């Protein structure tokens, strides 16, 4: 059995304006936006409502009613933004919170209310907290989203509908409370169906013919016979642990204890399922409604609390507790099965070597950023830049042997640099070359060693490589790009240094 | 006469005690020590044993020296890694070509390169790597290093027993650091048979400028088929110091 809470923030935008500009309290004001070449009221304050200025009115008419009406700009994206933030805040009440545009929230409160003692206390807590932060709020709780929504908006009765009693709760309410389309409700008004009880007992075929299939669906959703989809702002993570604190936590030591406790619980569950986390997210809910995010990633599935704690430890400094943190939520959004076979790889003499190194790598990349760790495997290319490829994981094994018969420098410049040479044609190594202002006289040389561009990968000229040694014993890897042309000019580059 | 003999005995015993306190264990009988193939260079070290538990400082000034030093360090790391060891190579602007390491007895896929973006992370990363005792060696490329920082690294090494090879690439000042050894490797012209073309095997002037409790010196070495071979004249410590000045 499901339980849902509908929260209706009646004057969401107006309350928001009053929070940011308290001097407007007690004055009639409206939020207006341009619509089809006229300015239309989108939301009006309580005082403006008393004067009969309602949403949907043209601003000129509203001004006629109240000449000194304060007019503010209406931001179309604001309701969604506000509700999104409130939904994040409401995660303290239930992990599943959905935004209900334009002015509400829906909570899947199944199995949550008992933590507050009772459903009444649960609802009261939500309402008082929202009211104390300045929002006019009405709440209701029922088995279905439809009924909770209807009761929160249209009923003055007790807002907690006992399980299974949706129908009796709805009977007295107007048809609007079923979230019907405007033409349908207008039609019902014309026909004199002012309350749900006047049409709900009609045969479905009649209702369908008169008011369409959507009306039947909406009735079904309210009564619980039709499923209603629910899109929470945060999809529920299977590996999630929550820790709420009695007193708001402000110190780094306190945060570390919380992280440790959460990780222990999380890892216990992971171990039981034979899973390891590749990513873990810590969310800290502060008492001022802000949420602090910290995220870590691991290079391999890990279920070691101490290891993940070390990674979080590096990031604790970035958490700003401000007035205090009242709830910690730890999630492992990405998990992978733990591979027991890991120890056999790399035929290491001791089994936990690879875990130790994986943990070292995690620590390094947690602090220095991703993309700093590289491991290379041989590739089947002669072109020096392509002769190595980056290994994806620690346990990748080379498919081919490393070649030692090719003479390759120990230092390779990331980009070959131009040098000026004097070399006899056609294929002799240079006699001398100038690099960074120094002239190097070549005493010994080896080459040419021609390496072709692989035409199926990229266009370009081949390189004729020479390994040369100057009189001081410095050894260089230089190449000529392409053939000599008719003017006997060619471009020469230095590409590396031999040991 | 007798007292003099006793004195020298005493001094010898005290010396070995000091060495032991400083972390240099006398080679126990029957225990085979890693052979680094360094041949005559081994005499420079206290009791002829390569100090594994320590930080080795390598200084290079020019690009040629840097390349020679990288090759020499790779050769040393290769000896330490043997068949199944792993090595971490930390730096910021890496020019080492992994493929080129295979000539020095290092399987390049057993080297994990840490290419940091910021210089200020270097010391931290080297220290973290040195703490990980699953590694055989840690190579760090760092420009400047002061005594306190190096002391900290040396203490980490003594704790974890992972050999640290620090390469100081063209440092502004050659300030003293707390390393067991300071090396300077410079390239030497290779020697080839007249009949064969090419540039021959790598040859270096390997200088130990400082070594704790040992004898500094300088040796011309050739790296051939995975081991170092002496050629020409080696320079003993006295000559070496007078040469350097």
Automatic annotation (TrEMBL), chain A:
Q: Which UniProt keywords apply?
A: DNA damage
Q: Which residue intervals define the domain UmuC in the entry?
A: 9-152
This protein's species is Dyadobacter fermentans
Q: Which family does it belong to?
A: Belongs to the DNA polymerase type-Y family.
Per the record, a Pfam family?
A: IMS
| Superkingdom as given in the UniProt entry | Bacteria
Protein name, per record: Protein ImuB
Does DNA damage count among this protein's keywords? Answer: yes
Taxonomic classification, please? Bacteria, Pseudomonadati, Bacteroidota, Cytophagia, Cytophagales
PANTHER family xrefs: BLR3025 PROTEIN (PTHR35369:SF2), BLR3025 PROTEIN-RELATED (PTHR35369)
TrEMBL record, chain B:
Note the superkingdom of the native organism.
Answer: Bacteria
Among Gene3D superfamilies, the record links this protein to:
P-loop containing nucleotide triphosphate hydrolases
InterPro entries to which the protein is assigned, alphabetical: ImuA, P-loop_NTPase
What is the recorded name of this protein? Protein ImuA
Tell me the organism.
Dyadobacter fermentans
């Amino acid at each position: 059995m499901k339980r849902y809470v509908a929260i209706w923030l009646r004057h969401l935008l107006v309350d928001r304006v009053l929070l940011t500009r308290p001097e407007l309290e007690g004055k009639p004001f409206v939020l207006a936006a341009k619509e089809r070449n006229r300015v239309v009221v989108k939301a009006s304050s309580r005082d403006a409502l008393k004067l009969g200025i309602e949403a949907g009115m043209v601003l000129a008419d509203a001004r006629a009613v109240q000449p000194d009406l304060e007019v503010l700009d209406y931001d179309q994206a604001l309701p969604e933004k506000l509700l999104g933030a409130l939904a994040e805040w409401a995660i303290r009440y239930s992990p599943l919170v959905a935004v209900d545009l334009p002015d509400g929230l829906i909570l899947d409160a199944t199995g949550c209310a008992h933590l507050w003692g009772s459903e009444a206390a649960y609802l009261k807590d939500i309402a008082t907290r929202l009211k104390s932060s300045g929002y006019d709020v009405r709440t209701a709780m029922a088995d279905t989203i439809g009924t909770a929504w209807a009761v929160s908006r249209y009923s003055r009765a007790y807002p907690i509908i006992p399980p299974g009693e949706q129908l009796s709760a709805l009977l007295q309410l107007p048809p609007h409370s079923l979230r019907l389309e405007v033409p349908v409700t207008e039609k019902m008004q014309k026909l004199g169906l002012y309350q749900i009880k006047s049409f709900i007992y009609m045969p479905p075929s009649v209702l369908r013919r008169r008011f369409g299939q959507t009306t039947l669906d909406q009735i079904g959703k309210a009564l619980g016979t039709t499923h209603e989809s629910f899109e929470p702002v945060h999809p529920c993570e299977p590996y999630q642990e929550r820790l709420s604190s009695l007193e708001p936590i402000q110190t780094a030591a306190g945060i570390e204890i919380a992280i440790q406790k959460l990780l222990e619980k999380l890892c216990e569950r992971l171990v039981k399922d034979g899973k390891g986390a590749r990513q873990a997210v810590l969310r800290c809910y502060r008492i001022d409604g802000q949420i602090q995010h910290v995220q870590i990633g691991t290079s391999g599935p890990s279920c070691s609390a101490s290891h993940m704690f070390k990674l979080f430890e590096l990031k604790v400094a970035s958490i700003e507790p401000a007035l205090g943190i009242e709830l910690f939520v730890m999630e492992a959004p990405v998990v992978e099965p733990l591979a027991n076979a890991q120890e056999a790889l790399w035929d290491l003499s001791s089994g936990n070597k690879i875990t130790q190194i994986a943990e070292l790598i995690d620590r390094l990349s947690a602090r220095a950023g991703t993309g700093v760790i590289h491991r290379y495997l041989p590739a089947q290319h002669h072109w020096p830049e392509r002769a190595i490829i980056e290994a994806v994981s620690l346990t990748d094994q080379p498919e081919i042997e490393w070649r030692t018969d090719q003479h390759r420098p120990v230092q390779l410049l990331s980009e070959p640099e131009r040098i000026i040479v004097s070399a006899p044609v056609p294929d002799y190594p240079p006699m001398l070359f100038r690099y960074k202002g120094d002239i190097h006289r070549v005493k010994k040389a080896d080459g040419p060693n021609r390496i072709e561009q692989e035409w199926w990968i990229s266009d370009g000229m081949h390189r004729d490589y020479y390994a040369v040694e100057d009189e001081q014993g410095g050894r260089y890897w230089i190449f000529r790009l392409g053939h000599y042309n008719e003017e006997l000019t060619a471009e020469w580059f230095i590409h590396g240094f031999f040991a | 006469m007798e007292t003099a003999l006793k004195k020298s005995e005493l001094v010898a015993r005290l010396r070995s005690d000091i060495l032991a306190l400083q972390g240099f264990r006398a080679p126990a009988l029957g225990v085979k020590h890693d052979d680094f193939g360094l041949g005559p260079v081994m005499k420079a070290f206290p009791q002829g044993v390569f100090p594994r538990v320590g930080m080795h400082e390598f200084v290079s000034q020019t690009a040629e020296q840097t390349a020679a030093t990288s090759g020499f360090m790779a050769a040393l790391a290769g000896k330490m890694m043997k068949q199944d060891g792993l090595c971490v190579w930390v730096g910021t602007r890496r020019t080492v070509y992994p493929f080129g390491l295979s000539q020095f007895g290092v399987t390049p896929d057993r080297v994990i390169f840490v290419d940091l973006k910021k210089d200020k992370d270097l010391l931290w990363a080297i220290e973290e790597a040195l703490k990980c005792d699953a590694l055989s060696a840690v190579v760090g490329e760092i420009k400047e290093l002061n005594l306190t920082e190096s002391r900290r690294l040396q203490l980490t090494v003594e704790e974890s027993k992972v050999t640290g090879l620090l390469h100081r690439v063209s440092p502004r000042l050659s300030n003293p650091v707390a390393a067991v050894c300071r090396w300077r490797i410079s390239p030497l012209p290779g020697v080839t048979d007249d009949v064969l073309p090419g540039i021959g095997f790598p040859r270096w002037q390997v200088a130990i400028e400082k070594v704790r409790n040992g004898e500094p010196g300088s040796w011309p070495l050739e790296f051939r088929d995975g081991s170092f071979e002496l050629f020409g004249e080696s320079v003993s410590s006295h000559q070496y110091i007078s040469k350097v000045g």
